[in-house]
Amino acid sequence: MTGLRRHPLAWPLAAVLLLALGWAALAPLRYANHDQLLEIEQGTAARRHSGDQALMLPSAIRLTLGVQDVLLLRNRDTMGHAFGPVLLEPGQDFRLPFEQAADYAFASSAHGGREVVVTVVPLPDPGWQRLRWRLAALVHAVRYLKLQPPSAA
After folding, report:
1. How far is CA 134 from the centre of its chain?
2. pLDDT (0 to 100) of residue 144
3. Model confidence pLDDT, tens digit, residues 16-36
4. How many folded domains does the chain comprise?
5. Domain limits at 78?
6. CATH code (residue 43)
7. Which of 10, 88, 90, 133 lies at a 20 to 30 A Cα distance from 73?
């Protein structure tokens, strides 16, 4: 405890941290819409046919009932792609809603025929469940963060 007495900002920082954790645990979950986007970028089929295995498409997607429970599939490629039973033509969007919490596996031609697992979780209750949900959503977002090269000036 002597360490906290030496730093005058320790108590205010601890109070701010506790307030942030309280907000994360109790604040309602709100999003502008219920869609979670999975976009197949232009050139995906060409890169896959050339043997490029570094496609930047997630192999796992996490949805939450009542928050983001619709998978929005968007094909920006010049070729059609299959996602499970859905065939997406070039430039086409398709909304795939989910109504039950479960794991769903879909074969995806954009992923080289591999499976994409869509995990649908129930809406978390306020408290520890909501705090864990927010932390898991943050980890998932960072893990599948879309990397972009720096633009040439």
Report:
1. 12
2. 67
3. 777 776 666 666 666 667 788
4. 1
5. 33-143
6. 2.60.40.420
7. 133
